Amino acid sequence: MRVVSGIQPTGNLHLGNYLGAIRNWVRMQDEMKDGEQCLFFLADLHAISMPHTPAELHKATLEMAAAVVACGIDPQRSVLFNQAQVPAHAELQWLLNGTARMGWLNRMTQWKDKAGKNREGQSVALFGYPVLQAADVLLYQTTHVPVGEDQKQHLELARDIAQKFNNDFASEDAPVFTLPEAITPPQAARIMSLRDGSKKMSKSDPSEMSRIELADDADTVMKKVKKAKTDPEPLPSEAKGLVGRPEALNLVTIYAAVTDNTVDAVLGEFGGEGFGKFKPALGELLVETLRPISTRFNELLGDREALDAILARGASHARELGRPTLDAAYTALGL
Ligand code: ADP
Ligand code: NA
Predict the structure, then answer these.
(1) With the CA atoms of 72, 214, 82 and 29 taken in that order, what torsion angle do they form, in degrees rounded to the nearest 10?
(2) Pocket of ligand 1 (CB under 6 A)
């Protein structure tokens, strides 16, 4: 089993990113058995398909790398790297561009959504992005790719490209590419803003009070939890009592996600209590959970050499793992 997964580099990393995305990586890593391997990359090449600020992308990539290590990705066990530091991703994309069909890409719903009515004004990279995604996984003979609903179509496309390439350019007993299977990542919590229960916790919310950041110190975490929007009612004893109370539900959901419990189990403990009791308990839980993460995160960001070394080692390992497939693809094409 070989799993490959990428994440878009973003800054202002918050609890939602941890519980909704990074923690799943850590779980996948921890489930790998002997001889199995996870490759995790920061999708910085994908980021240039949309308008972006170079300095911000660079900073976000480093922050995301520091965050995933701080959250528990072990660069000795998993291969962690920046996509841009492994040129084979871009090279293989070009080789696959000869096989991918315009019609296939035109049918991608993400392309349609992102481009909207202004197709002519989009970058070629945005259109071809799913081919880069195909390269990301096909390069490593990946067997399994964790994909959410929104990425299923892109994985299908990767399989179509692999199949057509194998048919057109390889002999049946020596295919160049493995067709990757989708695996459903564990159901991740969706964390809402601490200021507005109808909005997702997000890096782009102008209010810092709306999110708990991975870099926050203990006092800041406690303050943000204390100031979180709630209502005057005590907590109910069952989840259905939280209907119509999005802010209360969100705080209980956070508690449940962090402790790996159900909302009902948390309410079993706190039902009947007011927020005067629940908020300090949640605050302390978050402080304890985030303390090692924020310590390591800030340490890594303050030690660029260590961080660069981790990424350089990961990239070198990834280049080695991808080399045979890239060579085989060139050869199959007569290049
Ligand atoms: P943001 O919404 O802050 O801009 P991104 O879109 O950069 O975050 O998301 C990076 C990853 O973190 C994605 O996998 C996304 O699903 C996850 N994520 C972001 N916000 C949340 C949230 N509030 N709850 C759960 N997961 C989230
Ligand atoms: Na976003």
Answers:
(1) 20
(2) 8, 10, 16-17, 19-21, 190-191, 200-204
Q: Separation of 202 CA from ligand 2 center, angstroms?
A: 7
Distance from C-alpha of 169 to C-alpha of 155, rounded to nearest angstrom = 21
Active-site residue identified among 59, 114, 164, 223 = 114
CATH number for the domain including 72?
Answer: 3.40.50.620
Place of tokens 């006092």: 219
For residue 227, indicate whether it is catalytic.
Answer: no
What is the CATH classification number for the domain harbouring 243? 1.10.240.10
Is the torsion defined by CA of 192, 247, 185, 319 positive or negative? positive
Contact 293, 70 (CB under 8 A): yes
Range of the domain at 221: 208-300
* Same domain, residue pair 315 and 292: no
Question: Residue 150's pLDDT is what?
Answer: 87
**Tens-digit pLDDT profile for residues 115-143:** 999 999 999 999 999 999 999 999 999 99
Mean pLDDT, residues 175-190 taken together: 91
Q: Are residues 20 and 158 in the same domain?
A: yes
Of 59, 164, 203, 229, catalytic: 203
Cα–Cα nearest to 49, from 112, 115, 106: 115
The overall average pLDDT reported for the chain is 96
Please tell me the distance from the alpha carbon of residue 80 to that of residue 114, in angstroms, as a whole number: 28
pLDDT tens digits for range 41-58: 999 999 999 999 999 999
In a domain, 327, yes or no: yes
Instruction: Write down the ipTM of this complex.
Output: 0.93
Does the global pTM surpass 0.90?
A: yes
Q: Say if residues 105 and 111 touch (Cβ distance below 8 Å).
A: yes
What is the C-alpha separation between 209 and 328, in angstroms, rounded?
A: 52
Structural domains of the chain, count: 2
Residue 196 lies in a domain: no
